[in-house]
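Example record

One chain of 54 residues, shown exactly as stored in the release files.
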Amino acid sequence: MLILYGFPFPNNLLKFCLLILYFNLIVICQENGNKTLNNYKNNKKIFPQKYKNY
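Predicted structure tokens for this chain:
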């Protein structure tokens, strides 16, 4: 929000904040991916006939 109002924002600080946000997003995506993978594995155990092709 400060950037929108023309606040004199140091460039390095901005890059640093974006970098932190980016890494947070990567971590969140990886956690969601692992959950999905675990759900798939659990479903495979519970419903083996459903996942015969894989």
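Notes: The chain has a mean pLDDT of 71.
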